[in-house]
Amino acid sequence: MIKLKNVNKYFGANHVLKDINLEVAEGEKIVIIGPSGSGKSTTVRCMNFLEQPTSGEVYVDGEQLTEKNKLTMARSTSAMVFQQFNLYPHMTVLGNLTLGLMKLQKKSKKEADEIAFKFLDTVGLREKADAYPAMLSGGQQQRVAIARALCSQKKVILFDEPTSALDPETVQEVLDVMIKLSEMNITMVVVTHEMGFAKKVADRVIFMDEGMIVEEGTPQHFFENPTNERTKSFLSKILR
User: Fold this and answer.
1) Strand ranges in the chain using DSSP code E only, listed in sequence order
2) Percent of the chain scoring above 70 in pLDDT
């Protein structure tokens, strides 16, 4: 579904990504972890050209992304869930979910409502359809953002630290929804610091440091028998 080939990214003189090579198969659940500033979020944002690589190639569903086709290709294949919820504050939950369905997918109001309620059920928030974002907790807002991504009915959902802006007590409700999604035939790429989630959901764990992929493997390999010394050091600090 997604292939990064020798991807480099500079922000000015800062070399953020260094020859990233990564393939994500259809239906695969990839979790990317690593210290802050290691390039995790930039890697995911390059997958749909929210950040354009300085060099290298990005393929989505077998077709190379370019500046000319990025909007049609990337946006037709993947949806993204951000750290911040990015909901329209002046619209109800239902309005946030149906807007794209009607404007971009040209669904009727009835069709859009049916799809929206289906995915509100998935995230457990049907009763909040008429609420406004300000009336919801952070965890509930993020679950609405996930429902909105599901409404797009894309093949891939990219998650950029979806729990990092939440209060600790609301993190688990979002992770529970993501665990539920992992049981569906959706390709997921998740940047997170939640190691329990990675152990439970990932088909493959990618560890990044200083703009490079340092180690990758199954959760069992990664958490029980990592081989790279930097990986071991990182895990020793967060798994105490």
Assistant:
1) 2-11, 14-24, 29-33, 55-60, 63-64, 78-81, 156-160, 187-191, 204-209, 212-217
2) 99
* Residue 158 CA: distances (Å) to CA of 46, 130, 163: 11, 27, 13
**Predicted TM-score (pTM) of this structure:** 0.91
Rounded to whole angstroms, the Cα distance separating 206 from 88 reads: 33
By three-state DSSP, how is residue 100 classified?
helix
Q: pLDDT for 28-60, tens place per residue?
A: 999 999 999 999 999 999 998 889 999 999 998
- Three-state SS at 197: helix
Give me the amino acid identity at 181: L
What are the structure tokens assigned to 35, written together? 């210290």
Q: Which residues are registered as beta bridge partners of 31?
A: 190, 205
pLDDT tens, 165-183?
Answer: 898 889 999 999 999 999 8
What 8-state DSSP symbol labels residue 136?
Answer: S
Phi/psi-derived region of residue 212, left when phi > 0, alpha when psi is between -120 and 50, beta in every other case = beta
pLDDT on residue 240: 62
The answer to whether the CB of 32 falls within 8 A of the CB of 190 is: yes
Half-sphere exposure of 204 (CA within 13 A, CB side): 16
- Please report where in the chains the tokens 């669904």 appear, as a residue: 107
Closest to 18 (Cα-Cα) out of 230, 214, 215, 211 = 211
Helix (H, G, I), strand (E, B) or coil at 11: strand
User: How many residues are given for the chain?
Assistant: 240
N-terminal to C-terminal alpha carbon distance within the chain:
35
